[in-house]
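Blackboard transcription, Thursday session:
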Amino acid sequence: MTALESANKIKAQFGDLISEPADFRGEVTVKLADAEQITAVCEVAKGQLGFDYLVDISSVDNYGDDPRWTIIYHLRGLRHGNELRIKTGVSEEKSELPSVLPVWRTANWHEREIYDMMGIRFSGHPDLRRILMWEGYPYFPLRKDFPLAGKPSDLPGIAFTKPAPLEGGPFVTIAGGKDAISREPRIRNPEE
Amino acid sequence: MATVQDIEVRDSAARSVQAADELQDMHGEKMVLNMGPSHPATHGVLRIVLELDGEIITKADPDVGYLHRGDEKIAENKTYTQFIPYTDRLDYLAPLANNVAYALAVEKLLGIHDKLPPRCQYIRVMCAELARISAHLLGLGAFAMDMGAVTVFLLSFTEREKIYNLAEAISGARLTTSYTRIGGVMRDLPPGWLGQCQKFCDEFIPALNEFETLLTRNRIWVDRVRDLAVISKEDAIDYGLSGPNLRGSGVEYDLRKNQPYLCYKDLQFDVPVGAVGDCYDRYLVRMEEMRQSARILEQCIKKIPGGADNKSNEPVNVADGKITLPPKQKVLSSMEELIHQFMLVTEGVNCPPGEIYFGHENPKGELGFYINSKGGGTPYRLKIRSPSFVNLSIVPKIFVGTMISDTVAILGSLDFVMGECDR
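(Written on the board underneath:)
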């Protein structure tokens, strides 16, 4: 059974909730209209169609569009070697969808990472904490409205809290630097 | 005369369970121990919060992210070519393999991944396999050193040094190679490089045999790593393990075989798998993978189109001025090439809108790039599926019930690298 046939089988079960399978560079993608159904779809994919390996979960911030979030699941069947991508959209007001942890346990850290980076919550996840950033960090850094240079937070920039030994030199950091640009040693005017 | 002897193995897992049973009546307080983030066995900056009952671990909670540099955010603000140096710093023990993985992902988005010139494919395979040997050598050396066998570490570094020299000869850098480009490689192999590579292979196999005599049948080593942290086939798949950790559990899945890319279809190699899924199996799988990599290297040296000095002028880049940089001489003398160069440098490779995922068999496992493009020279979103991150997520499961002195063995056998885990 090819990936396309698998996708059509899912579509046959869930009807209009699943979009027509799209093929790009040999990869088959289906879109799920209702994010609440993601666990059910994944259970079918794993149980009936043999997609026993969850490769990855990614997230995209479609800033300015609705729905704002897209969550992307990469599925693989180790026995038949096919791959399938399932996408689903979540609105910014809701920012929550069911966890697929009951289906694949590897989803645990992937979902924590998405929560950490994008601020999308997964209902039913037993341990939804930040994973890469520290507990208590106030922002979600992979959102498109988060600046590349970062934002100041409660935790001081430990590496550059004092201007020495660059004091008086041509390249100066700003003490307690607010973002990545001020933490970098740069040519600055004394009053800055 | 050599005789075959069965080695009697202490079952350390069973011993810890027995020890736990004996101690059951003594209710003591549980102790919380912070392991890391700066602990030699954590190979970088991994912190594990261990909850201990005496010497037995009852709960383990890995805390990752100390090396988080926001690579995915940076990628959204760079052109595709500008991101190549950042891939060096993912798995910094195998930068060449990361370069190859990333270039192939972008080429898949462009739709040229199966149209690469054959010489380029062979060069990339050699890069990836050299990186695999280098990464496994360090993984092995560090694993053994954490167990107290320092000799292996020193010996394996002698061999790694030669690989660094080879990397320096092709890319100019020993660690931060950035050797691949979108649609090809930075430059062709330097003269004499294939000969050096052959010499390395000739010296490497005897050296590897020597490492085997130091460890494989070593009573102390076998006692400490056998039957420790057994990962079943089902768990390995369920937790999404990849690479040697997945194959160590007996799952025969290798992206080079199952989803062949580059010229792996034309090369002969075997995929070793473990029988039990313990630390010893993961060690054996890595040892055999190094032999297979050397085998692939030797085949590449013989089969590479153009041979050592490329007298027939086989191309190493795709012949498309909109993807790879034109020769400098032409840029300075011809209008069209000048425009191509200008557009490539200022705006980057113009990729079509769409989304792709490409998984590459890296030394640590499957390094995947998910690229979501809205067209133009920069990705809209680039997600890195890092094998170390996923492989570490099984730690809370396999640590429970082991002794605290086993943690270093288990971490060594999982062979992760934090630069890639934290991105």
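Lecturer's comment: Chain A has a mean pLDDT of 82.
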